[in-house]
Amino acid sequence: MNSTVCEMLGIEFPLLAFSHCRDVVAAVSRAGGMGVFGAVRYSPAQLREELTWIDEHCGGKSYGVDLIVPNRFEGKGEEIEAERLLESLPGSHRDFMSTVLEDYGIDGSELEEEENGRLNFVRNLEESGAAEMLEVAFSFPIRLIANALGTPPPVMIDQAKVHGVPVAALVGTRAHAAIQIASGVDILVAAGGEAGGHCGDVSTMVLIPEVVSVAGETPVLAAGGIVTGRQMAAAMAMGAAGAWCGSVWLTTVEAEPSPAVKEKLLAASSSDTVRSRSRTGKPSRQLRSPWIDAWEANGPTPLPMPLQSLLVEPALLRIDKLAQSGHAGARDLATYWVGQGVGLMNQEMSAAAVVQEFKADFLLACERLAESLGEP
């Protein structure tokens, strides 16, 4: 396609797939889009292992890496000690969490035995931890490095320039976009409030033209609730150079959510998601469940990032494990980050098939627009 993003990243179709699953990343890249691996919960050694696999399975096609290095979080600028942070978690929050679990028949004790990369997450928020991850990432032929929360740190910008790799950053407002451009990013990802995970509250339909209006020569990728080719075409009609999608891959054959969670995602409507601080301490959109409802209705004020993640991730991991074994209470509580586009995600298919469906739907949308102009 005649797209700035395609030329910049060396891809056929300007559809970027953010995923924590290496299989999805490689499959989308092979299909002509570009997979971007979400690496924030990995150690440098684990990241090297994952990128080695992706590099061996993407058929020589482009892929990228996404990190989270926020501008503000609890303890930023200090030497982070995991044990000190864990000790600082309030007993009232722990007690509330245990009560919710026990109400659904789940043992809420000894949660610390459940570990799913949350300590890696804390370390990687810091520039020093991110620098270690970047060293690994840039040792592979990645074609994009992205920062998912806030302005990329100087170490990311500087190393990307040395390696000739474009830098992308997510934005939720026009003001954020102007700041990111000034910092030197190469691609803006305008993520509307419909998006899964961390997002603002400005809708995608409003945000895209706002960001495009200040982007100048910097290409903009549209994100937030986009799960079809016709939505992608609409965003590009507003000036976007392509789309950045995360939620749509969650119900693919390859994706990381458990079968129990996939089942809930496939049955969900666009009204079954909610923005909540209950998982990371910052607003993030997730599939509504009694777990989130309990925090929103009766829970203590969520802790600032990264403390809330340190608190709840062991409980959520236990919920996932039990849900997979058929535990009824855990299946009720199970949740995952997902955007409002989940209401259009009604069929499990391969990641490659999703890319092909995007292409076909995109073309049909463009043909409808051409017909409305009276073009043959």
Tell me what the structure shows.
- The chain starts with a helix and ends with a helix.
- It folds into two domains: 204 residues, Aldolase class I (TIM Barrel, Alpha-Beta Barrel), CATH 3.20.20.70; 126 residues, no CATH class.
- The protein contains 16 helices and eleven strands.
- The chain is of the alpha/beta class.
- β8, α11 and β9 form a beta-alpha-beta unit.
- The protein is globular, with a radius of gyration of 20 Å.
- It has an eight-stranded parallel β-barrel with strand order 1-2-3-4-5-6-8-9, surrounded by six helices. It has a three-stranded antiparallel sheet with strand order 7-11-10, with no helix packed on it.
- α2 runs parallel beside α3, α5 packs parallel to α14 and α9 runs parallel beside α10.
- Helix content is 46%, strand content 12%.
